[in-house]
Each structure stands twice: as C-alpha cells, then as structure tokens.
Recover the amino acids of this structure.
C-alpha cells in the first residue's frame, strides 16, 4: 500500500496546499498546527470514517482562537 493510500482516511486527506483556496489566509505554521490538532481529535474519537471535515473545522477553531493544547 502506498503512503498516500495509507493516510487517505486522516482528517486532512485531500487538502489543498497552504496559501491556496480556502487556506489563502493561513500561514504554513497555522496549517501544520491545525493538521496535527485535527488528527489528534480524530484519533481521540476512535478514528471514525467520514467525519474529516468536522475534525478539521474543530481543530481550525481551536488553533486560531488559541484554545488547542500545547503544540
């Protein structure tokens, strides 16, 4: 199995590159912190399928409002 196939179920699978589309206003550091937080939220919830957007949006709010745990 390829590395990309192995990670296709993570919350950030298929996301755009930093500075493009919906991510145009975010720095690479912010995107990395959101990615890590979304993944942690997903894992804490038991790695459910089909809820990637939910975890990404929760992580985005937490990181951008400074509410996420230590980075």
């Amino acid at each position: 199995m390829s590395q990309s196939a192995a990670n296709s179920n993570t919350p950030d699978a298929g996301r755009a590159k930093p500075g493009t589309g919906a991510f145009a206003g975010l720095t690479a550091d912010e995107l990395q912190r959101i990615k890590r937080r979304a993944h942690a939220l997903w894992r804490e919830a038991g790695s459910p399928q089909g809820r990637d957007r939910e975890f990404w949006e929760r992580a985005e709010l937490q990181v951008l409002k400074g509410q996420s745990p230590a980075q």
About this structure: Residues 12 and 37 are 10 Å apart (CA to CA). The chain has a mean pLDDT of 78. The longest helix spans residues 28-44.
